Automatic annotation (TrEMBL):
<dbReference type="InterPro" id="IPR010918">
    <property type="entry name" value="PurM-like_C_dom"/>
</dbReference>
<comment type="function">
    <text>Catalyzes the ATP-dependent phosphorylation of thiamine-monophosphate (TMP) to form thiamine-pyrophosphate (TPP), the active form of vitamin B1.</text>
</comment>
<feature type="binding site">
    <location>
        <position position="73"/>
    </location>
    <ligand>
        <name>Mg(2+) 3</name>
    </ligand>
</feature>
<feature type="binding site">
    <location>
        <position position="28"/>
    </location>
    <ligand>
        <name>Mg(2+) 3</name>
    </ligand>
</feature>
<dbReference type="InterPro" id="IPR006283">
    <property type="entry name" value="ThiL-like"/>
</dbReference>
<dbReference type="GO" id="GO:0009228">
    <property type="term" value="P:thiamine biosynthetic process"/>
</dbReference>
<comment type="similarity">
    <text>Belongs to the thiamine-monophosphate kinase family.</text>
</comment>
<feature type="binding site">
    <location>
        <position position="28"/>
    </location>
    <ligand>
        <name>Mg(2+) 4</name>
    </ligand>
</feature>
<feature type="binding site">
    <location>
        <position position="44"/>
    </location>
    <ligand>
        <name>Mg(2+) 1</name>
    </ligand>
</feature>
<feature type="domain" description="PurM-like N-terminal">
    <location>
        <begin position="26"/>
        <end position="136"/>
    </location>
</feature>
<keyword id="KW-0479">Metal-binding</keyword>
<feature type="binding site">
    <location>
        <position position="209"/>
    </location>
    <ligand>
        <name>Mg(2+) 3</name>
    </ligand>
</feature>
<keyword id="KW-0460">Magnesium</keyword>
<feature type="binding site">
    <location>
        <position position="144"/>
    </location>
    <ligand>
        <name>ATP</name>
    </ligand>
</feature>
<feature type="binding site">
    <location>
        <position position="73"/>
    </location>
    <ligand>
        <name>Mg(2+) 4</name>
    </ligand>
</feature>
<keyword id="KW-0547">Nucleotide-binding</keyword>
<feature type="binding site">
    <location>
        <position position="260"/>
    </location>
    <ligand>
        <name>substrate</name>
    </ligand>
</feature>
């Protein structure tokens, strides 16, 4: 299958058509209209087989995940997703694989009213690069640099599921099939918190999505905001599948050190706390307060009840840094 045949068959004319797309797939560039009084938010993510995902991952899940992780970045900025470009490198063009992969992409894109407006295809090791674009009202974007001492630290949902799924897949853990299925779904079909990100605008002081692990991503906020933090590990939410699969001290690396769950981590001042909790609950999001921002620069204290956890012993090699 030639490049343009592939593009015409699997991308051009498929999915939603947004009114703000003046020119989509088929020319040298796409043309889009930006809403008045808005800023353009742009993020790019590359996923390489054997590094960022298992080589035998289903193509439908890969298509979904490739879009989802980028929309999660937009959500962390409070942006409304609108358009994506896709660069796809394939060892060979297999019809069945492409049908499933593009179906996964189009499903999640349509759900979030996102149009695929361009990209590139080439031959080589399996690699997917997505550039996602969205809009945010001018001056309203969430950043990592606004946290202040006294702000409360929240997460939008349970952590650790994806990490358990990865380690089970690498045969480092033995998990009952019924729970492993749920954990694997969280890994392969993450749900970007797009609605939550837009609700956070005007209330949260900083935000980030949890892709590299709670402590690693919190550290980005602390470094940009020049503050420290106290985290109560025993308050971090986990799913039933997680609780049924691991317990005791063995759970801490997964909730604190692993990533790939794509929940939002955000900080909120005391005077906005109740209002934001109420607004999020209207969207069915029960965000959980797990700590508080302190003065100082960059230090994290992690407590389990009254006991202090040794953070240096919590982390381990992240999947994204090792072999799949």
């Amino acid at each position: 299958m030639q490049e343009f045949e592939l593009i015409n068959r699997y991308f051009k004319g498929r999915g939603i058509t947004r009114r703000d797309v003046n020119l989509g797939i088929g020319d040298d560039c796409a043309l889009v209209s930006i809403p008045e009084n808005s800023q353009l938010a742009i993020t790019t993510d590359t996923m390489v087989a054997g590094v960022h995902f298992f080589e035998d991952m289903s193509p439908r899940a890969l298509g979904h995940r490739a879009i989802a992780v980028n929309l999660s970045d937009l959500a962390a900025m409070g942006a409304e997703p609108a358009w994506v470009s896709v660069a796809l490198t394939l060892p060979k063009a297999e019809v069945e694989w492409l049908e499933e992969f593009t179906a996964g992409m189009h499903e999640i894109a349509e759900y979030f009213n996102v149009q695929i407006i361009g990209g590139d295809t080439t031959q080589g090791p399996l690699t997917v690069t997505v550039c996602a674009k969205g809009t945010v009202p001018t001056g309203k974007a969430l950043t990592r640099g606004g946290a202040k001492p006294g702000d409360w630290i929240y997460v939008t949902g349970p952590l650790g599921d994806a990490g358990l799924a990865i380690e089970a897949r690498k045969q480092h853990l033995d998990i009952a099939p019924e729970w492993l299925k749920k954990l694997t779904t969280k890994l392969e079909y993450p749900t970007p918190r797009v609605a939550a990100g837009q609700v956070l605008r005007g209330y949260a002081s900083s935000a980030i999505d949890i892709s590299d692990g709670l402590l690693a991503d919190l550290q980005h906020i602390l470094d940009m905001s020049l503050v420290s933090a106290t985290i109560h590990a025993d308050k971090i939410p986990t799913s039933e599948a997680f609780r049924q699969s691991i317990e005791g001290e063995a759970k801490w690396p997964y909730v604190l050190g692993y990533g790939d769950d794509y929940e939002l981590l955000y900080t909120v001042p005391e005077n906005h706390k109740a209002m934001l909790d109420n607004r999020l609950s209207q969207y069915g999001i029960e965000a959980v307060c797990i700590g508080q921002i302190r003065g100082g620069e960059g230090k994290v204290e992690v407590l389990n009840g009254e006991d202090k956890l040794d953070v240096a012993q919590v982390g381990f090699e992240h999947f994204i840094q090792g072999d799949a």
